[in-house]
Amino acid sequence: MKRFQDENKFLGSFANEILVKCPKCDSKSVVKKEPVAECKCGYCQTKVFECKHCYYKLEKPVYQYIAYGNPYCNNCYEQYEFESQLLKERPEKYKAKCPNCNFQEDWKPKVKKVLQNLEVKDGLVKEQYYNFPLWFQKEFNGNIFWAYNYDHIHYLERYIQAGLRERNSKVNYNSSLVSCLPQFIKEAKNREKLLKILEKWKK
Predict the structure, then answer these.
(1) Nearest to residue 138, comparing CAs of 192, 93, 79, 201?
(2) 68: which strand partners?
(3) For residue 110, which phi and psi values (nearest 5 degrees)?
(4) Contact 138/114 with Cβ under 8 angstroms?
(5) pLDDT-derived band at 5, boundaries 50, 70, 90
(6) Are residues 103 and 127 in the same domain?
(7) Average pLDDT rounded to a whole number, residues 35-46
(8) Residues 92 and 161 in one domain
(9) Structural domain that includes position 104
(10) pLDDT of 67-116, one tens digit each?
(11) What DSSP string runs through 102-135?
(12) Could you tell me the sign of the dihedral formed by the alpha carbons of 191, 194, 19, 151, in that order?
């Protein structure tokens, strides 16, 4: 019987390199941690996205903006709410139309800053810094089974295939990656199917 002992690794233990789908060419690409060049303490890090297939590279997230407000119309004096579609530039003014009388006028709006494509609700698990879909993910009985990278895959594989799973009673007992896994990964009846998915990912 194979044995697994919890090593008290966090999900963040596997986050130095996260494999994602490139938004330009749909190829496997990576979001990786890199030190900040101008940092003097040596601890500051940023995340860089890079695709080696189409050479698309980002050194910081791309943001978009939503203009919104709750003004009183200067024509009919009724209060109304407005909210724009996603905008590429931060707006200083926004032309809104009163839904009561159709009068249009410019307002200085409140502005929400959002990651590009954050409004896209496609059900995919995404990397949080750039909001790109993870490369390794698959629907499984109404759940999404996913992994950041090959190290994460190997760790999950060791856990899933083990008949004896031992928890670690040291610090972080209830916050380790293993303790936070969803129930469908822990269930023995799913072992064979999940291992087949991981084996395919490794190839």
Answers:
(1) 201
(2) 83, 110
(3) -80, 155
(4) no
(5) confident
(6) no
(7) 73
(8) no
(9) 63-115
(10) 999 999 999 999 999 999 999 999 999 999 999 999 999 999 999 998 87
(11) --EEEE--EEEEEETTTT---S--B-TTT-PBBS
(12) positive
- Based on the domain organization, do 131 and 191 belong to the same domain? yes
Record the tokens describing residue 49, joined without a space. Answer: 């996205």
- Same-domain status, 197 and 126: yes
Please name the residue that has the structure tokens 């579609």: 85
Contact between 70 and 61 (Cβ < 8 Å) = no
Question: Of 92, 115, 138, which closes a domain?
Answer: 115
Residue 174: strand, helix, or coil: coil
- 179 and 156 belong to one structural domain: yes
pLDDT digits (tens, 9 = 90+) for 163-197: 888 876 665 556 789 888 999 999 999 999 999 99
Number of domains into which the chain is organized: 2
> What DSSP designation does 46 have?
E
Same domain flag for 15 and 110: no
Whether the Cβ atoms of residue 134 and residue 22 lie closer than 8 Å to each other: no
